[in-house]
Every structure is written in structure tokens, then in C-alpha cells.
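Q&A log
Question type: sequence-to-structure
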Amino acid sequence: MKRIIFVILILFPFLTVYSIKPDRRYRFYPEKLGLIYKEIKVVTPDGLKIKTWFYPAQDSLTQTERENAWNNPRIKPYQTIDEQKRPTIIICNGDASNMSWQQYYMVMAYTAKGYNVATFDWRGFGESDEWEMNTDYLVYTELLIDYNSVIEEIIKQPEVISNRIALIGWSTGAYLSMAAASKRPEVKCFVGQALMTSFKEVIPTLRKIEKFKEKILIVPSDYPEELNPIELAPKFDKSTFLIVGEKDDRTPVWMSKKIIEKMKGDTELWIVPEAVHGGPDGPTKNFNLYNQKILEFMDKYL
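Response status: OK
Response body:
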């Protein structure tokens, strides 16, 4: 029962609302899961601090060790399992919540398999610096500045093989990850869940859904059109794994297929049976399988 409650606590907010909805409060900190981590100092060119946690590859804990950490959380001394540099996976958030939710479960799975993992919060989210946002916006172009700043610092870490970086994102975080990856030669792999083709196509799709029919949906005028996934696809040179729910009505299966068809490099597509866009019935509904699929992809290409 404890494990069931624990997983629900982590996964419940795996929701994507398709408009900016910052969450400033962390549910709990990594030490409650017994994770070894350090904070990386990331400051954007416009002077904002981006809260970033770096988790080195580490041994998984026993059930007893996890329960002890949960009940008596303490920050562990930072240490690595060896002196070896390793590939690193950067996980970014969507348009809501913060890095204190499902990211933890992903971190536990990936670090136990020998990867370093980094997570971060956009400006205005979590404990990153305050930045005023209009919640009618679908995205802010400035989030790409945050992402690039995180990548810049991660590749400098002594634990990291600087040219073996993977980016993972879902929904808003998926197209931001693809955009960020397109500008960074250090990035070898991209995993995108619920990836839109373009704002031009996703907005009419959203308007078919009752909750979005009257909602104000603003695309910033300075967001580069060439960074829409459908525009990036023909020249995108990263190994790519797209994940989409069979019943996703926000970024339907046809969007992922359309993007994949335009790519020339290594690509994989997983259409998750019966899954919707996000939440408890999204592609992460079987989280063990979800992480297994991603790890198989990383083992092959990263």
C-alpha cells in the first residue's frame, strides 16, 4: 500500500493544461526519496536564477532504505559511484507543475541504469526566480533561454560526457526540448511525449475540445516559426523517440506521425494503447513500461 500511495503522490500531476500555469511550491525534496543530488548554479543571460538539480548515476535503494529516507529525510553527501564520465539526460517540465513530481520517479529509474540526470524549473516555476506570466499564453519564448542556460552548465560538469546529452519533455516541454536540441550539437537524443506539429495546427485541434472552445490561447509574437516541430523535422539530426497516446485529442497521433515522416535520422514512435494526452490515463499510466521504453531507446542511441 505504501508503494501505491508513493507512486500516486509522484505521478498524479502529470497533467498538461496547454497554457502556462506555474506551481511555486515543491511537494517534497529529493532527499525524501534517498536520492543523491547537487544544485547547479544556472543564471540566464537576462540575470534570472534557474533552479537546477543534478543527480549522478547511483545505486538504487532497497525498499527499507526508501522507507527510511521517506520517514527521515536527510541530504546525503554528494558522491559518485566512480570517476567515470557518463551520458546525461535532461528532463524538462511541461506548462504546469514543477520538477518535484513525476521527474523524481524518472530520476530513480535512469540513475539506477548508469545515467546522470538533470531537472530544472522554468523561470517563474518552483524555486526559480520570479517572472511575471500571463496564464493565457501557451508558452513564452524566454523559456528557450532558460533551457539553453541549463544545457550550458550541465555540459561543464565533471561527471558529464559533454557530447552525449539527451533531452526529454512532454507537451509544451516536448516542443521546447526539440527546439533546444536543434541548436545544440551536444544533444544526441530527443524524447518527446505528446508533441504538436505547430501552433497553426494545434490551436484548431484544441478548439474542438469543450474546455478550450472559449479559452484565450496566446502564442507569443516572437516565438520563431522555424522552431515549430514540423518545420524542424526535415533537418533534425538527433535520434528521436516520440510517444503519444492513442486517444490523445490535444496532440493526436497524426501529429507525431506527420513529424516522424519528415525526419531522415533514427526515429521511433510508440503509440500507447488507450492512453490520452496526459494525467493518470496518459502515456505514463504504466510508468514502469514507460521508463523501460525510454531506457531501451537511450541504451541504443545515447
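Response note: Strands lie at 21-22, 38-40, 52-55, 86-91, 96-97, 116-120, 160-170, 187-193, 239-245, 267-272.
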